[in-house]
## 1
Amino acid sequence: MHIEELHQYCLGKTGVTEELPFGPDTLVFKVVGKVFLLVGLDQINQLSFNVKCDPVNAIELRQQYEQTVVPGYHMNKKHWNTVYANRELDDNILKKLIDHSYDLVVKALPKKMKAEIEKFN
């Protein structure tokens, strides 16, 4: 997976916007204003991104894919993982991790905000 593919995949999800709230080097993807993925734009050799994850699943992923999934860099390590693309996981699994993060954020939204997402469908 390359950053362009990651970018297009995230923007293809319902209700997603992109922002640069932390400066020009960190692209943040949000659904109805809530962050579900962060990626550094200054990466040259190795693409990595932060995604939200169920805490139990996060630990399992870190144990199973020690070279690919690590506690979230600059994030709450209980709920966020940093995932390195193009290592142990193929693009389909990377997309599933992105989907999981998106779904966790949507699931936690209040009903009114969930209704905002439905407007996009």
## 2
Amino acid sequence: MTVYSGPVFDMAVNQFGVIANHLEIPMDERDRILMPKRAVTVSCPIHRDDGTVAVFEGYRVQHHLTLGPTKGGTRFAPSVDIGEVAALAIWMSWKCALVGLPYGGAKGGVNVDLSTISKRELEGLSRRYMQEMIPFVGPHTDVMAPDMGTNEQVMAWFMDTYSMYQGQTVTEIVTGKPVSSGGTLGRREATGRGVAYLARRVLKELSINPAGATAVIQGFGNVGSYAALELQQYGLKIIAVSDHTGALHDPAGLDIPALMRHAATRGSIAGFSSELAFDPDQLLTLPCDVLVPAAMERVIDAKVAENLKCRVLAEGANGPTTPEADLVLEKRQGEVFLIPDILCNSGGVVVSYFEWVQDLQQLFWEEEEVTRREYAILDRAFDAMLQRAKADKIPHRTAAMAIGVEKVRAAKNVRGLFP
């Protein structure tokens, strides 16, 4: 019996089962490695602009604190539930361990449709959520970050609320803050840059010249837009993008800087061009060199996996590929090179770690230093994944997750069980 349920949590459990079987982890160890240490559900009442009171449900799941504080984003979306949040926290644990960060995974969120609340109500909700979380978070317990539906401004409100409670400014309680409030240069771009950097590395492995290559981006939020911009700067043509409002397709290549300016002003890609409008359902199966799913979980099922026409699948989102689709991709390893999510989008948490370190030290780096260190960590993790995959003759996702799970398991075993 468990409080966690839903397709996303079931997917995380399924993936862990595959890894646990591969690593031959005894059955009596598995629940201790997999099940979250702590889950919190809170009510977040706020004053609406019309004078009424509304209550929203919020969550925070801390997977494990064996290697250090937990770390993870906070999403504001109508899809948020405790099962989804738990799955994302579990994936974050494997991600942090894979890239060598001293963190366990966490995730949080509020079930809210942002289109139904004003900016003032968003501030009230953000502050109330953090106020409810104060007994359970801290710079050495659980450090929050942005996710879907949250941004630098929300992180600033989180930080200010926590600081007011402490009676002093505590910048290190969250990452992804504005640079003017203790954030780090390069954090906003970090996840998308990392996705593009690893995709370019794979193109080199496959002897594909970026200058003649094409890319398709599903999701044009922070991750997708910066991945598109960076890939375009590497010489790729971005032939299609989509978000929740629709899709655009231009075989000659889209103007990504112009599209980013439009999305920043309008809040979406809607209205950018009626001539380039395209069916979003066909986007994932367009012929291209690099496909970046950077939107939601579970968008690539077995049927989509069978019809993928990309050479590189760079998972910018968390959990975009179902276990059934993974079985299809395993058979297509020679055709589709998978960069699994826990590696591909890890640039965000890597630079969040840098922000946390800089805040603790009150010593800040230049952006070139941040980016250089980010790419060095991504290179090391990518090399470890490839080496493991080739040595054990296993898919890339299995190799990446096995490295992460092994590290968490080893840390738990060496520390023992208290009491």
